[in-house]
C-alpha cells in the first residue's frame, strides 16, 4: 500500500518535442508562480480561478519562446489531452507573450477551493476566448508536437 497523498499523485505529464519530459504532482505545480484570473465559465458563472500560466510549465520542460520561437518552430503546437480522451490544440505562438496578450491559466482551484468532480484537478482558463471549447477540464497531459 502506498503512503502517498492525492497531492503527491502525478496529475500532469509534459512530453513530446521537449528538452525535459515532466511528471508533475499538485505539490510540484504549487512551486510555480501562482496567478489569479477572474473569468466567467461556459455557464456564465464568474469565479476566481488560480493556478499556473501554461507557458511557465512548458518553459520548465525546455520549450523555447520569445526570440527562439521562429522559423520551423512556428509550426509546433501543443496538444492538450484530458482524462476522458478529449483533445485540443494550440499553436505555440498563441502561448507566447511576445506574440500576443493572451495568458492561458492551468487552474487547480476555483474560488479558493481545489478543483474536483467534473473539472478534474486541472482545467484551462482562457479569459478572452468567446467560445469555451478549449477551456478543457480533467487535463492529464501536455504534448509538444511538430506539424
Explain what you see.
- This protein has 147 residues and is mainly β.
- It has one domain: Oxidoreductase, molybdopterin-binding domain (Sulfite Oxidase, Chain A, domain 2), CATH 3.90.420.10.
- It is 11% helix and 38% strand.
- Strands 2-1-10-5-6 form a 5-stranded mixed β-sheet. Strands 3, 4, 7, 8 and 9 form a 5-stranded antiparallel β-sheet that branches.
- The radius of gyration is 15 Å and the shape is globular.
- The chain starts with 9 loop residues before the first strand and ends with a strand.
- The model has no long low-confidence stretch (mean pLDDT 91).
Summary, kept brief:
The protein is mainly β. The chain contains three helices and ten strands; from the N terminus they run E-E-H-E-E-H-E-E-H-E-E-E-E.
Radius of gyration: 15 Å
SSE succession: EEHEEHEEHEEEE
Total count of strands:
10
- List the uncertain runs: none
How confident is the prediction overall: mean pLDDT?
A: 91
- Counting structural domains, the number is 1
Count of discrete alpha- or pi-helical segments spanning 4 or more residues: 3
Text of the CATH class: Alpha Beta
The CATH architecture name reads Alpha-Beta Complex
| Largest beta sheet: strand ordering | 2-1-10-5-6
Calculate the terminal CA-CA distance, rounded to whole Å.
Answer: 43 Å
Write the layout of secondary structure elements.
Layout (H helix, E strand, L loop, with lengths): L9 E7 L5 E4 H5 L4 E6 L5 E8 H7 L15 E7 L4 E5 H4 L9 E6 L2 E2 L8 E3 L13 E8 L1
Parallel strand pairs: 1-10
Antiparallel strand pairs: 1-2, 3-4, 4-7, 5-6, 5-10, 7-8, 7-9
Amino acid at each position: 500500500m502506498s503512503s502517498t497523498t492525492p497531492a503527491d499523485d502525478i496529475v500532469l505529464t509534459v512530453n513530446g518535442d521537449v528538452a525535459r519530459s515532466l511528471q508533475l504532482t499538485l505539490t510540484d505545480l504549487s512551486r510555480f508562480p501562482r496567478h489569479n484570473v477572474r473569468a466567467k465559465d461556459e455557464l456564465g458563472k464568474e469565479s476566481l480561478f488560480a493556478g499556473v500560466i501554461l507557458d511557465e510549465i512548458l518553459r520548465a520542460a525546455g520549450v523555447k519562446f520569445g526570440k527562439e520561437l521562429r522559423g520551423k518552430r512556428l509550426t509546433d503546437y501543443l496538444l492538450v489531452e484530458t482524462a476522458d480522451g478529449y483533445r485540443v490544440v494550440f499553436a505555440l505562438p498563441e502561448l507566447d507573450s511576445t506574440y500576443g496578450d493572451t495568458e492561458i491559466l492551468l487552474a487547480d482551484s476555483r474560488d479558493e477551493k481545489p478543483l474536483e468532480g467534473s473539472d478534474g484537478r486541472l482545467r484551462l482558463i482562457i479569459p478572452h476566448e468567446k467560445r469555451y471549447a478549449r477551456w478543457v477540464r480533467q487535463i492529464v497531459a501536455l504534448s509538444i508536437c511538430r506539424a
